[in-house]
Amino acid sequence: MELNLYDKEPVENDVVIRIKGLKVWTPEEKSWWRRKPTKSRSVILNNVSGSIRQGEFAAIIGPSGAGKTTFLVSLAGKCTLPSEGSVTLWARNVKACEGAVEIVPQHETFMDGLSVMEHLVFMTEMKIGSCKDLRNKARLYGLVEEFKLKAHVNTPVGGLSGGERRLLSLATTLLSDPQILICDEPTTGLDSYNALLVVAVLKKLATTGRIVICSVHQPSCDLFKEFSSVLLMAEGRLLFHGTQDECSNAFESIGLRCPLNYNPAEFYIRAVSNSNTNVEKLVELSQNRLSVDVDNPSRPDLVHNYNRPIQRNWFKQVYLLLWRLSLSLKREIKNQLIQLVISVVATSLVLCVAYGGASGTTQLGVQAMRGFLWLITSEVSFGVSYSALYAFEYEISLFKREAGVYKCSAYFVSRLLSFVPRCIIWPITLVSISTLAVDLPNYILTATEFTVLLILSSIPAVAYGLGMAALFTSTGIIGDVMPCVDLPLLLMSGAFLRLSSLPPWIYPVKYISHFYYAMDSISNIYWRQIDFIDCPSNETSTCIKDGAGVLLENGYVNDFIFQDSIGFVFITMFWCLLGYLGLKREEKKGYAY
Ligand SMILES: Nc1ncnc2c1ncn2[C@@H]1O[C@H](COP(=O)(O)OP(=O)(O)OP(=O)(O)O)[C@@H](O)[C@H]1O
């Protein structure tokens, strides 16, 4: 049975995409200490003009570095390089036609831990709506069938071959049924059977009125002849745009005839690679042809009723992102458990050995218990914040690739929530093992309070790790920056110096230190229960008489529950905001096609 995925009727042969005087440059490189650019910009696209009609199935060919990818990305409105000129769809700026154009990049980016079906279900839910809806379900299964992915639905994406990944990438893009599809080398890496399969699907799309534009590298004769039109590029210029026959006539008119049985695409590319004269002749020839189309009056009345992208509501986006992450993490559960056992159980045992029998009721024990409280607090904070530090390292290109599919804030929040199990398991394990060795008053109640407090304090610690990760991910210097930021926050914990002795100008830093709030709370929980600290008669230094004295010496506050609760909420929001801004900046930089 033939699947009818593209139910729109072909429409009249009208110009949809118009490109006028498009120039794109490489960015100027400036050093931060000099105003003068260290490297001046060079032209990538040089005054490209043209127009593309409804139903066109166009092949962009040209030598390497001709500017094909840059041209495609500009057509999709996703070029982030400095540019001039315009690209319009139905006489409207391409950037204002969200959802009309989809681009399939040369290099696919997926979450490799998911199976093919899980990936497609996630994308269907995000891009077109619930998979329970029969139409959406039919579209999903139709594409699986059309791209011969049925045999691989349970295969992890990371285990697919290069060609299969390419097919999956195309199927994912077609879920939203875009009006204009741009593919950067869709057949590269595919065997001839699959290359023809892909081209046949794309051609079918074009026959239903959509525009399909593909850059193709060394296409075979069979493949090349499937395209309805050819765009030939060299040195950043569009040398020719027209049908295959028109292309061959144009070459003949400048004295170049493609030999019989010779691959025409290869012939055209060679002709413009070797000779500047040929390039100039073709530029001259094409200028007259292109100006006709470009100067046609615009027809804003022809704005097509293309599928506007849907955006699931924010909570649904967070839910779906969490679902995807949980699927990916589920497969790493063994590694996660080993990590937990090594990190927490081993740490707890070391603490048991070092602090065995410590009690805050003796002068010696005061120092030991201060150290113990600091160590369990910092172990949890460091443990969770450093595990969050590399959360975006592998995901940032996926996040950029999926820009527009979900909101940046939903992504950040889902990433924060994905750490919640760790924030619960870590403190429970650490407290339940390590406190067995020390003398806690009201053991069960105090250990429970420690656990709850450490769980609460680990949330801002994760927000801190994620915030820093989002701010510094692309620079690759996060490992150097983090210890520098940690230091003042650590000092503010009160574990190493008396907070009341700090100069007033440095004092506000303590309000953004999660170490401070955690130490303030845990110290209050413990020391408030110590009514008497023994002071031996031969003691030469001043004795601290009770837990309140210890708190006073450290500079911790009395109304700790209120202040520390507000503090935890405040710093969580503070780091989330910085993290969100960091991700937004990454999103703006755009995906590297
Ligand atoms: N962001 C960028 N910064 C600097 N130079 C760039 C950038 N993007 C593209 N270029 C340069 O512009 C030229 C055209 O690149 P583009 O990728 O568009 O060519 P292409 O025709 O697609 O090449 P290929 O067929 O090899 O993929 C290349 O010389 C490339 O190095």
TrEMBL record:
Residues 17-260 form the ABC transporter domain. One of its GO terms (molecular function) is ATP hydrolysis activity. GO terms for cellular component: membrane. Pfam families: ABC2_membrane, ABC2_membrane_7, ABC_tran. Keywords: ATP-binding, Membrane, Nucleotide-binding, Transmembrane, Transmembrane helix, Transport. It is a multi-pass membrane protein. It is found in: Membrane. It comes from the Eukaryota. InterPro entries: AAA+_ATPase, ABC2_TM, ABC_transporter-like_ATP-bd, ABC_transporter-like_CS, ABCG_dom, ABCG_transporters, P-loop_NTPase. The chain crosses the membrane at residues 337-359, 371-392, 424-444, 450-472, 560-583. Belongs to the ABC transporter superfamily. ABCG family. Eye pigment precursor importer (TC 3.A.1.204) subfamily. PANTHER family: ABC TRANSPORTER G FAMILY MEMBER 28. This is ABC transporter brown. It comes from Helicoverpa armigera. The gene is brown.
